[in-house]
Structure formats: structure tokens, C-alpha cells
What we know:
With 239 residues, the chain is mainly alpha-helical.
Amino acid sequence: MSRSIAVLVAGVAAVVMVLSKFIVPMESAETTVAEWFNAAAAIAFVLGGASLLKMNLLTISARGPGWGYAAVTLVAFLATLGVGLFKVGVPPSAAFPDHRMGGTPDAEGGALWWIYEYLMSPITGTLFAMLAFYVASAAFRAFRAKNAAAIFLLVTAFVVLLGRTYAGVFVTSWIPDDVPWVSWLRLENLSAVIMSVFTTAGTRAMIIGIAIGVAATGIKIMIGLDRSYLGAGAGGGNG
Length: 239
């Protein structure tokens, strides 16, 4: 019964959000539904934090695989939560200079700002730097010329990469740049054509496909065929 109510609420909210874009009097209803969503999201954050605590505490108590990482996660979560809730080190706001808790938690100079600036940002940069090596490894495996498609991909990538360096400009510098029918053969121009024409076309095709998929999934949710958001065991069509 509770699942049916959840499906009904999700379907009605989705229909209201869609119709509000086409029916002017329903614009206020969209705002109301959005406020409901914010309230539900706040509850979900609390439940997510409780679930994080529970899972990591269970892992630590059972000394399961990776329990050390669970301990670090737990300590970091509790420390960040406490710093944010109690506004540690936050300077008073200009509007309320006499109230210590009047400033915003992420104000410059506060402990939460320090955590984000000097812990979160470096960690994020490190992860992206490591990701570059994984991308390079994947590209090396993908660029092995095993078939015509791989050869075409390899040649295109080589042209784009070389066209964005001084070496590529130097190699084709003998091609006149003031003659339109041959100037596109210069590597820097050919690289620009590939990025602005072929890559843009492929990107737009992917975006259109994603949009169609999102629309189809939204319709399935509105009519109750897709109930995956209810969790495990909530397959489509079950009451």
C-alpha cells in the first residue's frame, strides 16, 4: 500500500511539473511541488547521513575489508558535520555583528571554508589528475589499429592532437593559408573543423538520444511502469 501511495505521489507531482510549463495558471503549483521536493531532499540528506553512519560503524565493528577507510570516512563526516553545524571559526555577518552564529558556514575564514579550500579542492584535483592517466591508458587500448573503425579513430585523434601543438602548425606551414580551397588542409585548421563540425554533430546526437531516454523514463515513472526509485524489489508493474 505504501509503495502505491509513493507511486501515486510521484506520478501526480511529475504531471503537475510538466503541465505547469504549458498552462500559465499552474505555475504556482510548480513552485509548491518544488518546495515539497526541497523538504523531501532535506529528509533524504538526514537519512543518507544516518545510513552512512550505520554502514561504516558496522564495517568498523566487524573489522571487515577496508574498515580503515570506513573509519577515515566516519571521522571526516562527523568532523565536517560538527564544523558546519556549530559554525566553527565563522566571522559574524555584517547584518548581525553581535551574533556569533549569524555568519554563513562557508564564509571565508571559517573552518568549513578551510576544509573545502585546503582539503576538498586538493583531493578533487588529485583525483582528476589520476583520472588523466586512466583516460590515457584507455585511449592507448582503444587506439590499437585492429579494424577500420579503430584506424579512423586513431588518425582523427592524431590530427586533433597534433593540430593543437606547434609541431602540427610547423609541419603544414607550407600550405598557403590565404587560399580557401587548400587552407583547410593545414593541421590547425583541420583540427578546428573536426572539433567544430564532426564533434559538435556527434555531441548533439548524443544529447538528443539522452533527452529521448529521459523523456521515456519520465513517462514510465508518471504512469507507474518504472518504480526503481522505490528501492530493491520495486520492479515495474508490481502493486
